[in-house]
Specification:
The chain is mainly alpha-helical. It has helices at about 5-20, 30-55, 65-75, 105-125, 130-155, 180-200, 210-225, 230-245, 255-290, 290-300, 310-325, 335-340, 355-385, 390-410, 420-435, 445-455, 460-470, and strands at about 80-85, 95, 160, 165. It contains 17 helices and 4 strands. The strands form 2 sheets. A two-stranded antiparallel sheet has the order 1-2.
């Protein structure tokens, strides 16, 4: 039984994907407040749905466990367990402070992670039909295409302003984002869904030109940002897509010799398509933006420091990790910790480490790194399992979602793209699309015939009730 409240939850998720991006990626306090109000709205409608359907819907998807673990770790970091022996002064007993170097920022981080967990859990629980799956996929694809067009138009007409009004003197904006690298990461994830559908053969022939055009616009917009991390991730995305599409599925197979030859032809064909795609995107970027569109790829590299300061940032981060190896310096505390550990002048405040993996260890220690590894392993293990289906659309969605997640995980080695709320939300939504169980698959003809046969015999009340409270595995 799908209630009106459950429909409102899906609407809130779709609307938040759009608005969180348009609100500068949701980095301001007012935007964060609206984002969290949306999470509160989901909780209210979730309770109404449980009351109306007499069933509390939730998913037992293991990907929620690392997020819950991160929240518990943050609560531990707020406990007054750290002794400041050096600051005892005239006191016989040294003062005690929290494990987090910046408790205020840790509290804000906990609220933000909690809101993201609510959106993620709601997507896992309420995207429960092929129709809702298609709605989410179309929302991301259409909005990604429109966002790419907006970003391109704005870059040609007013490259240093957002919405042609707000000038950002100390950064290079693109689209609604203050940071061009974050726009590039968003495009990596958004174009992956239609790309996965195209490579899986899930798009009807008359609609393929539209999907190809949408992918092309998003790819060109990505390249036009000049983000080296984005371009590297786009190439990694294409390679990953070719590899997983060439993987053998668990289905009735042809004789071994023919199967091997068929797989080789399939891999070569898709590799050729991926190469053509990358070359076409590069050519399109040159056509739109001239040589300058690609010159930034090498033009911003300093021969004295090819990492553009990242080597120093990462060195300071390693010092923080060395002193806080187990539970970290505190979620959201990197800005304060960097100032304390900076070996240059100590006056330059850096909010992020420009490497999400190092910053995870800095903020959350080995425990946080372990939770992150658990999430990644579970994501790809479950995602590959969901691709083993006869439903081409479901297989294409799982393929594209995994590809988008892989691309942004590669990008995270060079930037802090997942620290932007809009990007984090889209990443979790892709993770949900990749791992939702068979409820969202379109029944095959054989399965539909079996369902019609079963429907001739009405289940008893206890059986119907048991079916209603079945939870996701």
């Amino acid at each position: 039984m799908r209630t009106l409240a459950s429909r409102f939850i899906i609407v809130i998720v779709c609307v938040c994907v759009v608005l969180s991006t348009l609100a500068y990626g949701t980095v301001h306090y007012w935007a964060l407040a609206l984002f969290q109000l949306g999470a509160v709205g989901i909780v209210i409608f979730w309770a109404v749905d449980a009351w109306r359907s007499r069933t509390l819907r939730f998913s037992r998807n293991i990907l929620q466990v690392p997020l819950i673990g991160l929240i518990l770790l943050g609560l531990l970091q707020l406990l007054p367990l750290r002794s400041q022996a050096g600051n005892a002064g005239a006191l016989s007993v040294p003062p005690i402070s929290s494990l987090s170097l910046d408790p205020y920022s840790t509290r804000l981080a906990l609220v933000q992670i909690g809101a993201l967990l609510i959106y993620f859990a709601a997507a896992l629980a309420f995207i429960d039909s092929p129709k809702r799956l298609r709605l989410i996929v179309r929302t991301v694809t259409i909005f990604g295409f429109l966002l790419a067009l907006f970003g391109l138009i704005q870059s040609f007409t007013s490259s240093n302003k957002i919405y042609w009004l707000k000038e950002i003197p100390q950064s290079i904006p693109f689209g609604p984002f203050y940071n061009r690298h974050h726009f590039a990461a968003y495009m990596e994830m958004a174009l992956a869904l239609p790309l996965g559908l195209l490579f899986s053969g899930a798009v009807e022939g008359d609609k393929r030109p539209l999907y190809i055009f949408a992918v092309a616009m998003m790819g060109i917009a990505l390249i036009m940002t000049g983000s080296r991390g984005g371009m590297i991730s786009l190439l990694a995305e294409a390679i990953f897509l070719v590899v997983i599409m060439g993987a053998r599925r668990k289905e009735a197979r042809a004789p071994e010799g023919k199967e091997k030859a068929g797989r080789v032809r399939s891999v070569l064909m898709r590799a050729g398509l991926a190469l053509i795609l990358v070359l076409a995107l590069l050519g399109g970027a040159v056509l739109f933006g001239g040589e300058e569109a690609l010159s930034r790829l090498v033009g911003t590299v300093n021969s004295d420091d090819p990492t553009t300061g990242r080597a120093h940032f990462w060195g300071v981060t390693l010092d923080i990790i060395r002193d806080h190896p187990v539970v970290g310096a505190g979620l959201g505390s990197y800005g304060l910790a960097y100032t304390e550990y900076d070996t240059r002048n100590g006056l330059f405040r850096l909010e992020q480490a420009h490497n999400d993996y190092l910053q995870t260890m800095s903020d959350a220690g080995i425990i946080g790194l372990g939770l992150g590894i658990l999430f990644i392993i579970a994501l790809f293990r479950m995602g590959f399992a969901r691709r083993e289906t006869d439903d081409k659309f479901r297989r294409g969605v799982a393929t594209g979602a995994l590809t988008g997640c892989f691309a942004v995980l590669v990008h995270s080695f060079f930037d802090f793209t997942l620290h932007t709320t809009a990007n984090a939300l889209l990443f979790l939504l892709l993770a949900a699309l990749a791992t939702i169980n068979g409820r969202v698959e379109q029944a095959s003809r054989h399965r539909r015939r079996r369902r019609r046969h079963r429907s001739d015999v009405q289940p008893s009340a206890p059986e119907a009730q048991a079916e209603a409270i079945t939870l996701e595995h």
